[in-house]
Design goal:
Elements (H helix, E strand, L loop, with lengths): L2 E6 L9 H18 L3 E4 L13 H11 L4 E8 L5 H14 L4 E6 L6 H6 L7 H17 L17 E6 L2 H10 L3 E3 L8 H11 L11 E9 L3 H19 L19 H10 L3 E4 L1 H15 L3 E5 L5 H16 L2
Parallel strand pairs: 1-2, 1-9, 2-3, 3-4, 4-5, 5-6, 6-7, 7-8, 7-9
Helix pairs in contact: 1-2, 1-11, 3-5, 6-7, 10-11
Length: 328
């Protein structure tokens, strides 16, 4: 059985408020826990009215309080936006509140444009060099080894698990060099998936926290009663991708019959590229797609994400994916 994680963007649906999105996220976390998922992650984005996870550590606390045992964390915290000391204090607090349940996935993209980055009051710098320095500072703060010259309270001695996120080769090399688990964002940037996983495995150096490579990779999954219903449900996701790529992002729209058929060829090509790592269909089709993805990647853990407007269908999809994973 392959381990499962769920990645939630905390989407705000058309007609809903941020409070509604938070309630939906809590319901999804409870459904993931009931289905046997290993962890539930929230992604940091800023300046987008359709995504409510900007204050990621607060959302993690909300979800951890709504559940009992599932690990909860970030997929991820975008380090260019935060001082390591602040991240250590926030996640040290989470670890104190929910011991043994908190993950800290780290990314090097800002998750916003330069206008939003300035509003966050973080200086523009070399992302690659700064990313490694910030990770090492976080490790030092959690270990309380004195290398940063300060002590984080909360944070010092916290049992927070670190993960490196990536959608290119750079994150793979960083995770390998530091001996940390690696999660690839193939749910929206699948092009370099195979190359990145190979680079991570070949270059991996054992560390105090991990003796062997640990690979996670994400895919979009939409499960319907049959293939036709799944395509209908997935049209909300298709609309969101098209809106994002054309500079008009908004709230998660309701599904539309025949949406793909009405798109111009260039939009269809974009969707096919973005959705290359996806499983959309009835249970049998999803099972075949998931099994093929796991066989292709050899992942230790499959990260599932699903932007479905109907929350009952969205939660039911988690249970279906858990049954599929149990058979792999």
């Amino acid at each position: 059985m392959v381990k499962l994680a769920f990645l939630d963007l905390v989407p705000v649906r058309e007609g809903d408020s941020v409070a509604d999105a938070m309630a939906n996220a809590a319901g999804m976390a409870q459904a993931a826990e009931a289905a046997g998922f290993a962890r539930y992650w929230v992604a940091e984005h800023h300046g987008m009215e359709g995504i409510a996870g900007a204050a990621t550590s607060l959302v993690i606390s909300h979800l951890a309080a709504a559940t009992c045992k599932i690990r909860v964390g970030s997929g991820g915290i975008m380090l260019p936006n935060h001082a390591p000391m602040v991240v250590a204090e926030q996640f040290g607090t989470l670890d104190a509140l929910y011991p043994g349940r908190i993950d800290l996935g780290l990314g090097r993209a800002p998750g916003s444009d330069q206008i939003v980055a300035r509003a966050l009051r973080r200086p523009v710098r070399d992302e690659e060099q700064g990313f490694v320095q910030d990770i090492q500072a976080l490790q030092s703060l959690f270990a309380d080894d004195g290398r940063t010259g300060v002590s984080a309270t909360p944070g010092a001695g916290a049992g927070v698990s670190l993960y490196i996120l990536g959608s290119s080769l750079y994150g793979a090399y960083v995770a390998a060099a530091l001996g940390l688990p690696y999660a690839f964002a193939s749910h929206f940037a699948p092009a370099m998936l195979d190359e990145a996983l190979a680079a991570y495995r070949v270059n991996f150096r054992p560390s105090a926290v991990l003796e062997e490579p640990y690979v996670m990779a994400a895919m979009q999954v939409v499960v319907g009663d049959d293939d036709a219903e799944a395509e209908f449900l997935a049209s909300s996701l298709y609309q969101s991708f098209v809106a994002l790529r054309t500079g008009t992002p908004g709230k998660l729209p309701p599904p539309v019959e025949g949406y793909r058929a009405a798109l111009p060829p260039q939009a269809l090509m974009m969707l096919d590229q973005v959705m290359a790592c996806s499983a959309i269909g009835g249970v049998d089709k999803v099972a075949a797609k998931v099994a093929a993805f796991v066989a292709r990647t050899g992942v230790d853990e499959l990260v599932v994400t699903s932007s479905v407007f109907d929350q009952v269908k969205r939660r039911a999809g988690l249970a279906a994916v858990a049954e599929v994973a149990a058979a792999i």
